[in-house]
Predict the 3D structure of the following.
Amino acid sequence: MRVLVVGAGQMGGGIAHVCAAAGHDVLLNDVSADAVRRGTDVIAKNLARAVGKGKLAQDQADATLSRIVAHLDLTKAVDVSIAIEAASEDEGLKKRIFTTLEAATPPAAILASNTSSISITMLGAVTKRAERVIGMHFMNPVPVMKLVEIIRGIATSDETYETVRSLAEGLGKTPV
């Protein structure tokens, strides 16, 4: 699966890390190339720590990092199966991101938010695919914590829910 993660901070970087570690190709976006680089630097540091503790082989760490590439322009069309937004908890910002993601991703792509407090129904309402909008709230720190809260909006389809539940399980997470 090809995944776009919007936000390379603590949460987005962690989401990119676990997706890439599970074998998914990850496009990582943030407001600047420097922000993306800082995010990937943290991922590299965490992988190196795991290698140093004997919890991960160096080739696995290298493969994980190689699956993460920068995607700096959200308005540029991108072929992904899911976009996971992990921006600041600002409703206006998230709505703008979802509007942009709708235009830049294939109609079949799922648009997920890592929000802990903003209505998924309201985020879905700014798109023409509310049935493919869902909450996928990871716990912090993402690489360590097992729970992922899956939040349906009023229009979220069963298919979208099942796809995201299956993805979470494939990441080694426990969906709730």
